[in-house]
Specification:
The complex is a heterodimer of chains A (about 240) and B (about 170). Chain A has about 240 residues and is mainly alpha-helical. Chain A has one domain. Chain A is built from 9 helices and no strands. Chain B has about 170 residues and is α+β, with helices and mostly antiparallel strands. In chain B, a hairpin with a 5-residue loop joins strand 2 and strand 3. Classes of the chains: A mainly alpha (about 240), B alpha+beta (about 170). Chains A and B meet through helix 3, helix 6 and helix 7 of A and helix 1, strand 6 and helix 3 of B.
């Protein structure tokens, strides 16, 4: 078991194994998302107050969850890279910034599209929306910092520190709707009492959430492989992979 | 663990804990300034600014909506359960605007204590259900109320102690 995990730390083994894993993750994710979309857009009933417009929840909420989850993963792999100086951890961290930024942008965009008809505005500077915008800037800042430093290893270290500093934003995002008066409503599902959503609407949401999680994992591995290949381009295994 | 790695691990923990404490202190210091909206009680108590635009949040009082004929002028009262404030607005209301609904209005307070709103936003709550279920709950008198607490000053922070920040834990 330990040996299996240990082998993941080797770039060529990571490259080969991640390639196999991502295919499985993507296939499973596609199945779950198709089921979730069918359930959410066709089977689920309309909302008593919002009508059809609420259905954007099936994109918005999973995207927002993944955006936050991806940041925690990025900070964790960043710390691992910082402490053990593992190349695999470093490429997963920088791949995570890219995938996370995409999901954050998706959550912000779908939120704005929902906000316009429901609230009457695309954007307000309330604590929830602002803290998620900060999350996007943290991701973008990570990518910018990485590009600003020539040496890959020192770039990875600096970026990991940025990722760790930013992790404080995650509980702020989650609790913002409790700590301050916000226009954004409180959590429907991620709370201690029972979900405030009817079961017929909840099941597709959870399917979409799980599907998005697996999609994120697949995209993360795929991007990390590409970064790994680029970084190891002078090594023999990388040359072998490219030429076969 | 290798001593050098151990030192780096302590460094990581130091960063995370240090930044958390710094942020917590900053947020406690700026708590008041981070309010997205004022409550009607705060306005009645004279805590709202007079010289500039601000936001007020509350539930639309049942039966308080008065519409002008042949224009988009409308006036209604917002409440947080303790006090009411009248809002005057000329414009298109969001789809979700209705009596009993949570609303955030942006505007300026007149000397007559009436808020002249330049924008009215509907605040949605966290409840999602099909219309039939909503009907059934209403008939049984079990419809979740738009949380009045949400619009009371510090309503969500007061019960933080025993609920770890989750107010809706029963």
């Amino acid at each position: 078991m330990f040996r299996y995990l240990h082998e993941w730390g080797s770039p060529p083994v990571f490259y080969a194994r991640a390639g196999r894993w991502q295919r499985g993750l993507w296939a499973l994710s596609a199945l779950l998302m198709l089921a979730g979309l069918w359930g959410g857009l066709v089977l689920a009933p309309v909302d008593y107050e919002q009508g059809e417009v609420y259905r954007i929840i099936y994109i918005h909420v999973p995207a927002a969850w993944v955006a936050m989850f991806a940041y925690v993963v990025m900070a964790t792999t960043g710390a691992i890279g910082l402490i053990w100086r593992l190349k695999v951890a470093e490429v997963i961290t920088s791949a995570g910034a890219r995938v996370g930024a995409s999901f954050t942008l998706l959550a912000l965009a779908t939120g704005a599209i929902w906000g316009q008809p429901t609230w009457g505005t695309w954007w307000v500077w309330d604590a929830r929306l602002t803290s998620v915008l900060v999350l996007l800037f943290l991701y973008l800042g990570f990518i910018a910092l990485e590009n600003a430093i020539e040496d890959r290893r020192s770039a990875a270290r600096a970026c990991a520190i940025l990722a760790l500093v930013g992790v404080v934003n995650i509980p702020i995002i989650h609790f913002s709707v409790y700590w301050w008066n916000t226009l954004h409503q409180g959590p429907t599902v991620a709370r201690l009492s029972a979900p405030a959503i009817h079961i017929s609407m909840l099941v597709p949401l959870l399917l979409m959430a799980l599907g998005s999680m697996l999609f994120y994992a697949g995209a993360l591995l795929s991007w990390a492989r590409a970064l790994m290949l680029e970084r190891e381009r002078s090594s023999r295994w990388a040359a072998r992979e490219v030429n076969t | 663990m290798h001593p050098q790695r151990k030192r780096r691990l302590y460094g990581v923990l130091f960063i995370v804990i240090g930044v958390s404490i710094a942020t917590a202190l900053t947020m406690t210091a700026f708590r008041e300034n981070l309010l997205f909206f004022f409550s009607p009680s705060q306005i009645v108590a004279g805590e709202a600014p007079l010289e500039r635009n601000f936001r007020v949040g509350g539930l639309v009082v049942e039966g308080s909506v008065r519409r002008e004929q042949d224009s988009t002028e409308v006036s209604f009262e917002l409440t947080d359960g303790a006090h009411e404030v009248r809002v005057f607005y000329d414009g298109i209301l969001p789809d979700l605007f209705r009596e009993g609904q949570g609303i955030v209005a942006v505007g300026r307070l007149g000397e007559d204590q009436v808020l002249r709103a330049s924008q009215v936003l509907a605040k949605h709550d966290e409840n999602y259900m099909p219309p039939e279920v909503a009907e059934a709950l209403k008939a049984a008198g079990k419809m979740p109320q738009h949380e009045m607490k949400r619009y009371q000053k510090d309503g969500y922070t007061r019960d933080k102690g025993d609920n770890k920040g989750y107010p809706d834990r029963q």
